[in-house]
Inverse folding.
């Protein structure tokens, strides 16, 4: 166990020498992949459980559950591995939570539009959304959720 700890701390030392934007892309990329896969798995699952339900409703149910599951994972990984925040944990969580709720309020109508009006598949529509959301999430976390106050 001691050896594993030493290896972890060695990797962590190298990790924090990386530029913040690169750490954000790597951690955010991991969080995004997990969220993206989870949304698609939940969407498929709900489509089978609720076969006669409107596709937009099914997708939005999957989206709500995906956000509920992944918000905390994203908060913890961003807080520590990207922004190295040491402020009040609960205040930062509330601010990060509000960022993700804000992003959900953008994500849900855009995804619904792509699915119902443009007739895109969920996996493609969410993939397009993610490209634009990534930049906004970085800005909101950097200057709001985990802003360092001097």
């Amino acid at each position: 166990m001691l050896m594993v700890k030493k290896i972890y701390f060695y990797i962590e030392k190298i990790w924090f020498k990386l530029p913040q934007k690169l750490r954000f892309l790597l951690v955010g990329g991991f969080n995004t992949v997990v969220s993206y896969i989870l949304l698609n798995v939940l969407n498929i699952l709900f489509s089978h459980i609720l076969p006669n339900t409107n596709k937009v409703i099914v997708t939005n149910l999957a989206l709500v559950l995906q956000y509920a599951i992944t918000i905390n994972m994203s908060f913890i990984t961003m807080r520590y591995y990207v922004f190295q925040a040491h402020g009040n944990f609960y205040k930062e969580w509330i601010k990060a939570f509000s960022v993700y709720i804000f992003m959900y309020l953008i994500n849900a109508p855009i995804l619904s539009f792509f699915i119902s009006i443009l007739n895109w598949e969920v996996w493609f529509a969410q993939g397009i959304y993610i490209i634009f959301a990534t930049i906004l999430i970085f800005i909101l976390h950097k200057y709001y959720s985990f802003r360092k106050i001097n």
Helices lie at 2-15, 20-49, 55-82, 89-116, 122-145. DSSP finds five helices and no strands in the chain.
